[in-house]
Structures are given as structure tokens and as C-alpha cells.
From TrEMBL:
It comes from Pseudomonas violetae. It comes from the Bacteria. PROSITE patterns: GST_CTER, GST_NTER. InterPro entries: Glutathione-S-Trfase_C-like, Glutathione-S-Trfase_C_sf, Glutathione_S-Trfase, Glutathione_S-Trfase_N, Thioredoxin-like_sf. This is Glutathione S-transferase. Gene3D superfamilies: 1.20.1050.10, Glutaredoxin. Residues 89-210 form the GST C-terminal domain. The lineage of its organism: Bacteria, Pseudomonadati, Pseudomonadota, Gammaproteobacteria, Pseudomonadales. Residues 3-84 form the GST N-terminal domain.
Length: 210
């Protein structure tokens, strides 16, 4: 049986896992193809025609081609009319998108050097001073998240689980799995335990992959 949704990207990619978890929350079936390091090259002409940035994930459905993982998650929630994952009321939706954008820009930027050096052992990211600076910046961003979770007492954008929790939940998993010093952030810990009650997170987030 041919699925209406095709996902291009290896299942170990944190950004692909955002999309897979979103599909699980929505109950959407899909066909996934392995693309990325170790699999089909994202720099091939075939892939570059789909995403000129040579990055996964890419989705293909009856509406065409789409890339950028957070955008894909929003698109899927909207397409399937799930107003719990992505509210339609403007202020509520903006709060969800605000934290998704924060994850993609502020949080992601903070961990890039430290994670690449400490976990991937990239020879270009092994400077001890830069790693220490990266860890400090990463922890500072997580402290911002701690304050937000203290304020909501539940999920990132408020009392209900949304797509913002999918993208940030995977980021927290990466933070916890990276071998480095971390501050005690009890609200983040409690939040992580709430997420771990969701089958989609156990499958695609809290699954042994950073």
C-alpha cells in the first residue's frame, strides 16, 4: 500500500525524529527513506532538487515538497486539523511557534560546537576552551527553559502538549545525553518525565539516541 506521506531522512537524525514523533501523535502513516550520512547522499542532484540545503528531513505529499523540520511539524499538525498540537487561535498559536523558533535559533546555536566535539568527536570541534564556552552557553539557554516550565507547571507553551514540546523534548534529550556538567534544573527534569509517558517520545526521543 502506498502511503500519502513520504519522509526522506535517516531515523537517527534529531530533525527527522521530530517529524516521526509528530506523525505518531497524529496517527499518520508514512513511508520513510534513508538519506544522510551513511546512506544516500543529500548532495546528490536528485536530493538537491528537493532541498538545495542538502539537509534532512524532506517530506513529499499530495501538496508537494517541504523541508525545515519545525515547519514540517507545524504543517502536519495543521493539515490534520489537530488544534491541540497547533492551536488556531492567534495568540495561542504564536506562543507555540515562539518556542519552536527559539529552539531552532537560540537553543540549537548554543549547543552546536559542544555537542559536535563531545559526542561526534569532530576534529574541528575539540578546542577545550570553545567546548567549555559552548557548554556554559547551552546550560544558560536551558536555564531559560527551566524558568518557563516553572511558570507553566506543565508544558512549554502552557498547560497542554503541543508541537513545541516535540522539538524541545528532543533537544532536552540531547542535553541530558551529552557527557558534560549540567546544572540542577528540577522543572526540566519533571517535564522530561511527563514527556516520557508518551509512546512517541519513547520511540523517537528517549530512545538511546542523542
Amino acid at each position: 500500500m502506498e502511503h500519502a506521506l513520504k519522509i526522506l531522512g535517516k531515523a537517527s537524525s534529531i530533525n527527522v525524529r521530530k517529524v516521526l514523533w509528530t506523525c505518531d501523535e497524529l496517527g499518520v502513516s508514512y513511508e520513510r527513506e534513508d538519506w544522510g550520512s551513511g546512506f544516500a547522499s543529500t548532495h546528490s542532484p536528485e536530493f538537491l532538487r528537493l532541498n538545495p540545503n542538502a539537509q534532512v528531513p524532506v517530506i513529499i505529499d499530495d501538496a508537494g515538497v517541504l523541508w525545515e523540520s519545525n515547519t514540517i511539524c507545524r504543517y502536519l499538525a495543521g493539515k490534520h486539523h489537530n488544534i491541540e498540537l497547533l492551536p488556531t487561535e492567534p495568540a495561542a498559536r504564536a506562543r507555540v511557534e515562539q518556542w519552536m523558533d527559539w529552539q531552532a535559533t537560540e537553543l540549537n546555536r548554543s549547543w552546536r560546537y559542544a555537542f559536535t566535539g563531545l559526542v561526534r568527536r569532530d576534529p574541528e570541534c575539540l578546542d577545550p576552551h570553545l567546548i567549555a564556552t559552548g557548554v556554559r552557553g547551552w546550560n544558560q539557554k536551558m536555564a531559560i527553559l527551566e524558568q518557563q516550565l516553572k511558570a507553566t507547571g506543565a508544558y512549554v507553551a502552557g498547560p497542554h502538549f503541543t508541537v513545541a514540546d516535540i522539538v524541545i523534548g528532543l533537544s532536552i534529550n540531547r542535553w541530558l545525553m551529552t557527557p558534560m556538567d549540567r546544572p540542577d534544573l528540577p522543572a526540566v527534569d519533571e517535564y522530561f518525565q511527563r514527556l516520557a509517558q508518551r509512546p512517541g517520545f519513547l520511540k523517537h526521543g528517549c530512545n538511546g539516541l542523542p
